[in-house]
Protein 1
Amino acid sequence: MLRIVETKPYPDQKPGTSGLRKKVKVFQQPGYVENFVQSVFDSLEGFAGDTLVIGGDGRYFNAEAIQIAIRLAAANGFGRIVVGQHGWLSTPAVSALIRALGAFGGLILSASHNPGGPDGDFGIKYNIGAGGPAPEKITDAIFARTKTITQYKTLDAPDIALGRLGEVKVGAATVAIVDPVETYAKLMRKLFDFEAIRGLFASGFRMKFDAMHAITGPYAKAIFEEELGAGAGVVINGVPLPSFGGHHPDPNLTYARELYDLVMAPDGPDFGAASDGDGDRNLIIGRGQFITPSDSLAMLAANATLAPGYAAGLKGIARSMPTSAAADRVAAKLGIPCYETPTGWKFFGNLLDADMATLCGEESFGTGSNHIREKDGVWAVLMWLNILAKRKISVADLAAEHWRTYGRNYYTRHDYDEVDLSAGNALMDALRARLPALPGQSLGGYKVQAADDFAYHDPVDGSDSKGQGVRVLFEGGSRIVYRLSGTGTVGATIRIYIEKYEPPTGDLGQDAQTALADLIGLSRQFCEIEKRTGRAAPSVIT
Ligand code: G1P
Ligand code: ZN
């Protein structure tokens, strides 16, 4: 039975680029989820009788939020609601399902790589029919609606059994509980040479995949262990847990340290990989060789045609501005464009839709392609496996060969978390003020070629984005980039990206922090980090 419930607005329901993200306790307030989901539906048009996909990363409060969302979707007139079994769907799988079903859109319940549990984070994001996050026009409309909402529509209907595959009726809508992996795996089979990868594992290639007790466990077990024959035990932390086992499900060198140490050991596996809470990020490590996400994008691009889905070649490559220029060198050699976009996956969507770019990536462990409209962790791992299987080469050898061909962009990111907000803003303002005088100056032996506050003109929709980060570009291809995080929750997070280009004839085998030591020193001195923030060293180094 349809029920209209009177409600009062919550003032803090502004969705960012990754949807609405708050502490679990905030989402648990009465009507909080209902208000936001109703505001989403009120901001959309023409979905009566259409399909909505719903799934999440299994974190604490996932199942409760999904039950609420199902009732609201049915009450608001969706005809078919497709939900991952147990409420589970990775972010890339939601994108794949929306596209495969020709659905109207989807709701993703996740806070990505943020910790979960009763004191952790939760989130709700709406994705459009193309499979990607809602554009600003929609998120602005949602936010406006949250401020004026007076009622939501729901049904007097009991919770449904999320574990039971099959269809049930909720009001007039059909709710289909589907295998969370099936549609996604089918897409992967189309893109990659599974036969070759099976051969790789059959030849004794050893891998470890750390699912970090988050959503990729079921995907990795079904695809790597079972279908590709990697064998039991390849997936570690493979059961999604509401609190991610107390871990921080962010696959970087700090939070995936256990995997890193395992794979870097002399007798370690040939290949290690990890993914984050909702399955869109990836970490790639070969025995003895960590691959930076920037290098990964470049190496995948250089070898992409070995995967059946990319055999026809790439239309272009896109990378976020702070991502190293390694991919630019590959694009130049392939004679295809390389687009430099502001930070955030949404800027890639237009380029992918317009078929101007095929692969895209960010230094923050995000890599993907035109197969969906989200970054995709398991996809990146399969792309690597496909290439290694075809090339019959180790990760370290492939990297060494790549650098001998293109040169090496030594790269690191230093984060200063929870800095005082006004100190962070003052630091950026001071940098901006110095920009005009920089070109031609010599800083610590590096000659400044150009310096700017990065701006992007979208070649597809003509929009302009300004103030996207301070770039100091040196002669010879090295650079320092400064920006404030747009996703931090406490104070300001200052990110400093340091990159040094070493030509093919140079010393290519150094440890990155060593190779970058002088530029790191310069990066701190130049922005007066210690004087302005009281921090002598970063909180996280990747
Ligand atoms: C961070 C990453 C960025 C990524 C975003 C969402 O944003 O740096 O590449 O797109 O998370 O996953 P930031 O905190 O730097 O604004
Ligand atoms: Zn994520």
Protein 2
Amino acid sequence: MMPSTAARVSTFGTTIFTEVNVLAQQHGAINLGQGRPDFDAPGDIVAAAARALEGGQFNQYAPGIGAANFRQGIANHAAKFYNLDVDAGRGVIVTSGATEGVFDCILGLVDAGDEVIVIEPYFDSYVPNLIMAGAVPVYVPLHPPAWTLDPDELRRAFTPKTRAILLNTPQNPTGRVFTREELTMIAELCIEHDVTVIADEVYEHMTFDGAQHIPMASLPGMFERTVTVSSLGKTFSVTGWKIGWVYGHPDLISGVARAHQFVTFASHHPSQEAAAFALSLPGTYYEELQAMYLTKRDLMMNGLNAAGLKAQTPQGTYFVMADFSDVFDGDDVEFTHYLIREIGVACIPPSPFYCKEHAHLARTMARFAFCKGDDTLREAGERLAKLRR
Ligand code: GLN
């Protein structure tokens, strides 16, 4: 007899991001797969991290719930942008990235056997997180090409067993920014059925063309039933730091904190000092970030359009979903392999972001990340043009 892995992880494969990274490297493809900037973070933020490392004061454990000045920065940010009254003492937890934050929320707020609504296509860690917690995912797909929710489908997903809904806005991978009407519809169902919202808002500062990010926690009656997860990685181009946070009503956050203390206990301390600095930057920082990503989005859209790929222009995030059915015969995984090997561009096939029953909904789609240098995006566009010929 050999020791074997646990049943709870037995269905998990390697994440699609790791798989595509390996393939892209093997074939020298331009990697528009994983959402990882290929440019550096702002120099003053990196300098703040270096100072924190060298000062000798921050090389031991941070408080489990996070450094006090960083938690205050998170509360100030929520007040400044969304007029939310977050308690920096009892209403904020610092986590090792939003990925840990979402898992802590599930562990701290959902019981085994509870149903949790997941909107498809979903970020890939959500469902494994639910499975590890013994919860039951209930899937509600967004409908292309505009990636809209069907209110009746959503309503039917709520049952007496529903404990929570995982909501991501701006949404990875579709680039949707949910409107006030959509959020109100979701909020009303959550209030009616006494359901908690786990709101993943890591792309909160990446919106375009006047689309407005509206935090679920800011809707009437929702602050007390929403935990909001965000992070430093996307907003400050430091995805490698793995610094995230969760905020909400202290009664909910106490559950999240109980889970967090036995998952990582505390997160990287020097990065939290730099994070406090980053959150103190003026509003112009965010305006420049948006302008930078608007240019990148347009370069990406031009490349996709010229190649004959059809895509809904994303209102937010640094991702776009494109339909390749006019230029390629096959499914999303076959297209991804073809694109990496023959065209020299890597993308992400979205079928891993769906349950088995719904995977066909994205059969002719691929996700492209445009958090890359402008020249890289232009070069990718030139390579993609070969698809049309
Ligand atoms: N958020 C990133 C993406 O969607 C990837 C994060 C990860 O690799 N786990 O590409």
